[in-house]
């Protein structure tokens, strides 16, 4: 089959295409405000210096707690019911930032937004996982990763232009961006509520007579526990370092300046999108355990290049750093959609919501632990211990793949990629937990 993006798009059911389109709008809204919260609270609203840090910490903590709660709700209620609720809560939360004038209002917005956004990613991945075939599920999460990065990047560009030169006062411009972000959540929720009843219900589940299982049972499955721990480690060495350890190490000794650093972030977004466009369909034919190992090798090479870049200056340092970020981005684009799919193929149908919630928590944990690790180790020996530790962590990721291959069901490690053998898009999903294929979410969904 052709790997042309349009040919792949035509394989998707109306349900999957609708969720992709809705999340594209949602991701654009997230990009509008993505880099600005600290600047907005500190410089624009003139709040005390501790408030931005406390706001981000509260938002992160609420996201973890909220994610676990939404996962349990999804295992009990229809996703269409949950989708409208989480979108409204997230939209209200980000919209509240537009009216922040004090610590209490900032922390209130953080609690509401953290609670809502933790459910958005979980429920959207759940909807993607409703695809009727393993092939469509894998392709959907690869496509979602590309859409998320492309639309978030576009949102960042538009948000930067509005914040810098839009009409009105600076505070009004930033407030307008947060209101616009909130409206994208509401629009996404309304669109999904409108479209889901009109789309084939191939991914809808029959109620289980046994009822949902708890988080203890999810973590009691060794393969799931190992994969969730690996996701947290992957997040720590990639997402968790892109805006902390990487810029901190490269700029501490003057190896790379602000312009070069901006270039590395541009490389990150472009490489992530192009990797999925070029390889998203082809990677479905590769064992997932192999993709995990390959990613570890790529990331170890990436951080080795960053290590070298930090010991150089000028153009050589910038070029070497960009090469490292390129490898880091390719690894991200390959591993997160693939591991998400693997987790869902292994998950018991009754625990689908909880598994996706734990996935969100694992990514968040790594994203939070990354800056903490960077802050503790960057002052030591010019950051050398940090980068060496990251190389070692990447090597550990590479070793997980072969270990998992010995325990994974063959159908979960390499789902049948041939479209001719797939069921029609309206067929009910097969049971999971090692018996067959299940649904897979992408870690990028929902910001």
Automatic annotation (TrEMBL):
Skewed-composition ranges (Low complexity): 424-433
GO molecular function: transmembrane transporter activity
Statement: the UniProt record of this protein carries the keyword Transmembrane helix: yes
Signal peptide (from-to): none
Main location: membrane
Keyword Transmembrane: yes
Keywords from the UniProt entry: Cell membrane, Membrane, Transmembrane, Transmembrane helix, Transport
Positions of the Major facilitator superfamily (MFS) profile domain: 1-410
Region (Disordered): 411-447
Record-annotated membrane-spanning stretches: 20-41, 47-70, 82-100, 106-127, 139-163, 175-196, 223-240, 260-279, 291-309, 321-343, 355-378, 384-404
Topology term for the membrane: Multi-pass membrane protein
Subcellular location: Cell membrane
GO cellular component: plasma membrane
Protein name: Major facilitator superfamily (MFS) profile domain-containing protein
């Amino acid at each position: 089959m052709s790997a042309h993006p349009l040919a792949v798009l035509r394989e998707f059911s109306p349900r999957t295409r609708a969720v992709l389109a809705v999340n594209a709008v949602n991701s654009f809204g997230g990009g509008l405000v993505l880099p600005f919260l600290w600047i907005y609270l500190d410089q624009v609203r003139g709040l005390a210096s501790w408030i931005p840090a406390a706001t981000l910490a509260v938002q992160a903590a609420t996201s973890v707690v909220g994610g676990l709660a939404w996962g349990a709700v999804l295992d009990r209620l229809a996703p269409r019911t949950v989708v409208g609720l989480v979108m409204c809560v997230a939209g209200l939360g980000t919209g509240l930032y537009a009216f922040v004038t004090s610590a209490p209002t900032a922390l209130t917005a953080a609690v509401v937004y953290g609670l809502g956004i933790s459910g958005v990613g979980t429920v959207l991945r759940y909807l993607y996982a409703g695809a009727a075939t393993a092939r469509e599920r894998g392709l959907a999460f690869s496509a979602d990763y590309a859409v998320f990065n492309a639309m978030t990047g576009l949102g960042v560009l538009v948000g930067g232009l509005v914040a810098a030169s839009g009409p009105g006062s600076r505070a009004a411009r930033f407030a307008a961006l947060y209101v616009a972000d909130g409206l994208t959540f509401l629009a996404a929720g309304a669109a999904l509520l409108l479209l889901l009843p009109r789309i084939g219900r191939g991914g809808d589940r029959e109620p289980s007579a046994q009822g949902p299982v708890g988080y203890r049972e999810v973590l009691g499955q060794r393969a799931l526990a190992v994969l969730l721990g690996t996701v947290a480690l992957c997040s720590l060495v990639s997402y968790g370092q892109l805006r902390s350890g990487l810029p901190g190490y490269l700029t501490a000794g003057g190896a790379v300046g602000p312009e070069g650093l901006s270039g590395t972030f541009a490389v990150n977004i472009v490489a992530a999108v192009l990797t999925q466009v070029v390889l998203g369909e082809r990677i479905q034919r590769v064992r997932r355990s192999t993709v995990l190992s390959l990613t570890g090798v790529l990331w170890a090479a990436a951080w080795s290049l960053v290590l070298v870049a930090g010991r150089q200056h000028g153009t050589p340092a910038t070029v070497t750093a960009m090469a490292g970020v390129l490898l880091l981005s390719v690894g991200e684009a390959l591993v997160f959609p693939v591991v998400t799919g693997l987790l869902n193929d292994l998950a018991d149908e009754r625990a689908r919501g909880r598994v996706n919630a734990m996935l969100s928590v694992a990514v968040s944990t790594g994203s939070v632990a990354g800056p903490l690790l960077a802050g503790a180790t960057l002052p030591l020996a010019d950051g050398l211990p940090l980068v060496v530790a990251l190389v070692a962590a990447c090597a550990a990721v590479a070793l997980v793949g072969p270990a998992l291959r010995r325990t994974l069901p063959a159908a979960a490690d390499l789902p049948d990629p041939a479209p001719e053998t797939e069921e029609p898009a309206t067929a009910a999903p097969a049971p999971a937990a090692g018996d067959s294929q299940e649904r897979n979410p992408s870690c990028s969904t929902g910001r």
